[in-house]
Write a structure and sequence with these properties.
Number of helices of chain B: 9
Distance between the termini of chain A: 66 Å
Number of strands of chain B: 10
Number of helices of chain A: 15
Keywords (chain B): Amino-acid transport, ATP-binding, Nucleotide-binding, Transport
Structural class of chain B: alpha/beta
CATH class of chain A: Mainly Alpha
Order of helices and strands of chain B: EEEHEEHEHHHEHEHEEHH
Strand order of the largest sheet of chain B: 6-7-8-3-9-10
Radius of gyration of chain B: 17 Å
Order of helices and strands of chain A: HHHHHHHEEHHHHHHHH
Pfam families (chain B): ABC_tran
Protein name (chain B): ABC transporter ATP-binding protein
Bound molecules: adenosine-5'-diphosphate, magnesium ion
Structural class of chain A: mainly alpha
Shape of chain A: globular
CATH class of the domain at 2-83 and 152-231 in chain B: Alpha Beta
Family (chain B): Belongs to the ABC transporter superfamily.
CATH superfamily of the domain at 2-83 and 152-231 in chain B: P-loop containing nucleotide triphosphate hydrolases
Oligomer: heterodimer
Strand order of the largest sheet of chain A: 1-2
CATH topology of chain A: ABC transporter involved in vitamin B12 uptake, BtuC
Domain ABC transporter (chain B): 4-234
Distance between the termini of chain B: 31 Å
Strand content of chain A: under 5%
Shape of chain B: globular
Largest sheet of chain B: 6 strands, mixed
Number of domains of chain A: 1
Chain lengths: 340, 238
């Protein structure tokens, strides 16, 4: 009998394929959803409305990073990072300022009238349409490349094969981890962070305690706007920059927020990753993983070319399915959010 | 000198006025007690003097300054603290964080005050890392009062601090209120347990229909047969 090594007995090709197509891809899109959903859920926690313009803040942030990249294309080479990434903090700051401006112009005057939450939601719908129009008016509809130089691609050797991850994907994962840790420290250690949690918990009592609610609102917009810009920029670096970049991911982001428990930042992060992974698994073509079984199958079984839970065109239903499934199991979301 | 003087205060929630001329005056370090039937405007009076409602007529003077329609934030800084009747803790935050939020506007090191609250309310010490929403009603009330005391206020407003509590906790809260007052903090308190509350009150205010029906010392109100008849459920007892 021939000795067969453990590794050579494993279908390495298929495993690496699975890691690349599901684990890496799910982590990437999950991180984008997580960064988006955190901002959305923080705004909900403080202002009690779902901000539909949040997706377009991501796109806007990416376009601002794009403009900055075009203005200073050589900046990245000087430090050995992509230019778009180097200018990202500036884009985040500008987006945060715009977000505060939008609040002053549209939401703050409404808040003074003690509106129903739906009024603010509709207003955010208006802001969303306005941003979409402005973005198309200024930058057109053609896809843009955020990279001035070719993208780095990292190959991590794994049992003789390569796990492939691109530079923007790696940066996205790093930024997501840093953002989560920073947000956690901010919310649990800093005075303003605690005041934010207090206001989200009981806004009237926060006011009674002397917490400046205006300052908390401003801080919330700054965090939401800058995280949106970071997520948008990194996503555009990974794929390409188009005006509908993040409008298409608004639904999964909203689902991620609700799944995690509305108003719960940690919930939004887990919700984002959950929705991201489920989506990737759902559209994954399992046929390729089943290929090694082919010699052992009787002749009359033919493997179809494509076996996926959900055809790619219907990917958009996945967040809804997760939403329903999680809410049946936990009506207030994974982290027990506020009841709507 | 009086620490608080409300003169002919009118206020409401946007519609018709609920308060139609409320007058209250209490001295520094005194206990004032507000009693009256449900819907009389007791809670509304506290909210109006704390700047949570717009006072349309009349004035509020606190610690020698006119604070009519002042912002809660500034009142807190000036030494006025308020414990509302309901939703008076941050349920998802720990007991310790609740106390810290009470000291939000302080710029100094207030850790010794947290320690002092644990001395006032010993059951809270072991629960300091627990979310306040998980505590029993009586302990939540302790957190709520503790939060308000973190500013070392000159005057503490308490809205029905014993509502819904077991007799054991009720006695404990009353005891604490007396101790807090003895340490130099003025108290203005709304209470359903009118007899018990008036017994410890320097000043008592009987509200009905958004205005004062009777205003006197606590003991005088207890002895007043008319008050006893209409508001204390039966003749004066001794
Ligand atoms: N938030 C509110 N909005 C409108 N009306 C209110 C509000 N809160 C209380 N009221 C009304 O004001 C009146 C006085 O209420 P309140 O001051 O709470 O009475 P109580 O003396 O029992 O504390 C009641 O008629 C009540 O219905
Ligand atoms: Mg009341």
């Amino acid at each position: 009998m021939e000795q067969v090594g453990f590794l050579s007995a494993m279908p390495i090709n298929e495993i690496v394929f699975f890691i690349n197509k599901v684990v890496v891809a799910g982590l990437i899109i999950g991180s984008v959803y997580a960064l988006g959903a955190v901002g959305l859920t923080l705004v909900w926690g403080i202002l009690r409305f779902a901000n539909f313009a949040h997706g377009d803040l991501m796109t806007l942030g990416a376009f601002i990073a794009f403009v900055l990249t075009m203005v200073m294309p050589g900046l990245g080479a000087a430090v050995g990072l992509p230019t778009a990434f180097v200018v990202m903090p500036i884009a985040m700051a500008i987006t945060a300022l715009i977000t505060i401006g939008l609040d002053k112009a549209f939401y703050q005057p409404l808040r003074k009238t003690n509106p129903k939450p739906i009024t603010l939601v509709i207003a955010s719908f208006g802001v969303m349409l306005m941003l979409q129009g402005l973005i198309r008016l200024i930058w057109g509809t053609a896809p843009r490349n955020m990279y001035v130089t070719p993208k780095e691609i990292y190959r991590i050797p794994f049992a003789g094969k390569d796990i492939i991850i691109t530079e923007p994907q790696l940066l996205l994962i790093v930024v997501t981890v840093v953002a989560i840790v920073a947000l956690h420290l901010f919310l649990t250690r800093s005075r303003t962070g605690k005041a934010m949690r207090a206001m989200s918990d009981n806004a009237d009592l926060a006011r009674i305690s002397g917490i400046s609610t205006d300052k908390v609102v401003r801080t919330t917009w700054i965090i939401a706007g800058s995280l949106a810009a970071a997520a948008g920029t990194l996503l555009a670096m990974d794929v390409s920059l188009k005006p509908d970049l993040s409008f298409n991911i608004l639904i999964p982001i909203v689902a991620a927020m609700i799944v995690g428990g509305i108003g719960q930042p940690y919930g939004a992060i887990s919700g984002g990753l959950l929705v991201g992974f489920t989506e990737t698994v759902a559209v994954f073509n399992w046929s390729i993983l089943l290929r090694p079984l082919k010699p052992h199958l009787p002749d009359w079984i033919e493997l179809p070319a494509s076996i996926a839970f959900v055809p790619t065109e219907y990917k958009i239903v996945v967040p809804f399915v997760i939403l329903v499934a999680v809410l049946i199991w936990r009506p207030n979301g994974i982290f027990k959010g506020k009841v709507l | 000198m009086s620490i608080l003087k409300m003169t002919d205060v009118h206020a409401g929630y946007g519609g018709a006025n609920i308060l139609n001329g409320v007058n209250m005056e209490i001295g520094a370090h005194e206990i004032g007690v507000i009693v009256g039937p449900n819907g009389a405007g007791k809670s509304t009076s506290l909210k109006a003097l704390f700047g949570l409602l717009t006072v349309s007529e009349g004035s509020v003077v606190f610690d020698g300054k006119d604070v009519t329609n002042a912002k809660p934030e500034n009142l807190v800084r000036g030494g006025l603290s308020f414990v509302p009747q309901e939703f008076n803790v941050f349920p998802a935050m720990t007991v310790r964080e609740n106390l810290e939020m009470g000291a939000y506007v302080r710029k100094d090191d207030y850790r010794h005050l947290i320690e002092k609250m644990f001395e006032y309310f010993p059951p809270l010490r072991d629960k300091q890392k627990q979310p306040a929403g998980e505590l029993s009603g009586g302990q939540r009330q302790m957190v709520a009062i503790g939060r308000a005391l973190m500013m070392e206020p000159k005057l503490l407003l308490l809205d029905e601090p014993t509502a819904g509590l077991s007799p054991r906790y009720m006695g404990e809260i009353f005891e604490r209120v007396i101790a807090i007052n003895a340490s130099g903090v003025g108290i203005l308190m709304v209470e359903q347990n009118a007899r018990q509350a008036l017994a410890i009150a320097h000043k008592g205010f009987v509200l009905a229909g958004g205005r004062n029906s009777f205003t006197d010392t606590g003991q005088a109100l207890l002895d007043n047969p008319e008050v006893a008849e209409s508001f204390l459920g039966g003749g004066a007892k001794h």
